[in-house]
Amino acid sequence: MGLSLSDDLTCTKDLEVTDQERKHHQATNGSTRITKAVIIAAGNGSRLNGYQNHSPKPLLKVAGVPLLERVILSAKRVGVTEFVIVIGYQADRIRNSIDAEELGVQITWVLNEDWKKQNGVSVLKAEKYVEGTFFLFMSDHIFDYRILQKIKQPALMGNDGAMLCVDYALNRVNDLDDATKVHTENNRLLDVGKSLDYFNAIDVGIFVCTPKIFDALRESRMVGDESLSGGIRVLAGRGEMATFDIGDFIWQDVDTVSDVRYAEKLLLRATRSPKDGFIARNINRRISNQISRWLVKTPITPNQLSFLNFLFTLFAAWVISAGKPMNTIIAGVLFQFASIFDGCDGEVAVMKLQDSKSGAKFDTVMDFLSYIVFIIGVTVGAYQVAHDPWMFLFAGGIVLFVVLAVRLGMQYLGSRSGSMKDFVQDVAGLNKHRYQPWYVKFLSSIRHLGRRDVFSFATLLIMLSGSVVFYFWAMIGAVILMCLGITVTALILMGTPKTPETAANGPDLV
Q1: Would you give the DSSP letter of residue 324?
Q2: Between β-strands 61-62 and 65-66, what pairing exists: parallel, antiparallel or unpaired?
Q3: CA atoms of 186 and 200, how far apart (whole Å)
Q4: Is 368 helix (H, G, I), strand (E, B) or coil?
Q5: Concatenated DSSP letters for 227-255?
Q6: Where in the chain is the domain with CATH 3.90.550.10?
């Protein structure tokens, strides 16, 4: 279905927002959130030289996701449901490649037949489709969606005509010469342009705008400057142009093949979490990031990766069930690799904007099923050597304990992320509470034992001895401590009073 030469074409999906939800947003945020965005996607990206089969720049894939789709999904995460997308070069191809219904948003396509002119012309084409405050994005920029969480309330701008997100960390810009420079002072924009002699920040390409931007663009156009920067300078001259520091959040303008590669490195770096343990941070992530770099370019989903990792652990359990020393060593190596690969589902989910609460819960369930099948494999292997039927009784009790502990942990997490990393994080807070009894302090101090990266690395070290019986008893002791810690602390955490402000973010412990 091609794009006709009319000015616009709208693709919609019914999106219902109840009056109760609107009142809740207004009560909790003090103002209505921004729900509309304009995206400029009309240029031809000449510097890419036919990269990725001559795709128009908005369809250029970075970490497996087209740039335009990535912008839409990022904005959708903060409540933007309506998009006005201005297209020009290869307009039919772009519109036919983006499915509004599949993305769960409403899209109004606006054709800019003058796409060879400066980008301010494209912004003006969107004027009759927006009212009130809206986001303005460039389709060729990647950014951390959490930037939008900081600026999504119109009240943040006061009476300004627009606000531009800027980056003061000049040393992390991939191509500083080509970047749009900004001179700011006290969160006010004084000047903007690619050839500024003095600048202290870089234009990130994320704007919050009011209809004042259109009058400013027309004024700039009258003096021969049809660029968006020209309109911004007009607002700055009126004292109506604010700036917002994005801090440590990532972003990248994608104009060249080098920018694509740099952007993918940034996205990989963003998958590393402060919640990662020592082993995950210094060993596992270094390897899993390299695997994920390839996986994001395939159609495989994060949930499929979680299930594949479970099957891989199942294979390791089968290997160790033979009970032989060499099988034990090989199984230890396989189990450690499974721990490394376990990070790939989350990394792919973050890089492709497919992370969700349901996905995190599925990953958690797969992880603990992996523990269970591995316990069974180890038990069979140990029995092959020791011929002690009591081992099955111990293992059966441990499996039941694991199920109980996971059930309580997931019950505590409730509607939160579903990841046991959040549980471990909350358990850490128990140590800070001076009134907790000694056993709670002890259990919270060994919380890292329940982390898969620690458990798997310890498994590897013990299994290198080749003794499956020795590992069996070490495993029984470790799992008892791990499950005891999860069970007791989950019960305590669920009984800890929470204020309305902390109810969605963890326990009110300190």
Answers
A1: -
A2: antiparallel
A3: 12
A4: helix
A5: SHHHHHHHHHHTT-EEEEE-TT--EEE--
A6: 1-157, 167-248
Q: Which CATH architecture has domain 167-248?
A: Alpha-Beta Complex (3.90)
The kind and range of the H/E element at 134 are strand 134-138
Q: Which residue has the tokens 């009894």?
A: 437
Interstrand relation of 251-253 and 141-143 (parallel, antiparallel or unpaired):
antiparallel
DSSP string, 448-494: GGGSHHHHHHHHHHHHTT--HHHHHHHHHHHHHHHHHHHHHHHHHHH
Cβ-based neighbours of 325, under 8 Å, separated by 6 or more:
466, 467, 468
Q: Report DSSP state, residue 496.
A: S
Residues of the chain with CATH 1.20.120.1760: 278-494
Domain 278-494 has CATH 1.10.150.530: no
Question: Cα–Cα distance between 457 and 451 in angstroms, integer?
Answer: 10
Q: How confident is the prediction along the chain (510 residues), in pLDDT tens digits per residue?
A: 333 334 444 443 333 333 433 433 443 344 468 999 999 999 887 788 778 788 899 999 999 999 999 999 999 999 999 999 999 999 999 999 999 999 999 999 999 999 999 999 999 999 999 999 999 999 999 999 999 998 876 666 677 899 999 999 998 888 888 899 999 999 999 999 998 999 999 999 999 999 999 999 999 999 999 999 999 999 999 999 999 999 999 999 999 889 999 999 999 988 887 777 788 888 999 999 999 999 999 999 999 999 999 999 999 999 999 999 999 999 999 999 999 999 999 999 999 999 888 888 888 889 889 989 999 999 999 999 999 999 999 999 989 988 888 788 777 766 555 566 666 666 665 555 555 666 666 655 655 666 778 888 999 999 999 999 999 999 998 888 878 777 777 777 776 555 444 444 443 332
Contact predicate 202/125, CB 8 Å = no
CATH superfamily of 1-157: Spore Coat Polysaccharide Biosynthesis Protein SpsA; Chain A (3.90.550.10)
Q: What is the pTM of this model?
A: 0.80
Residue count of the chain, please give it: 510
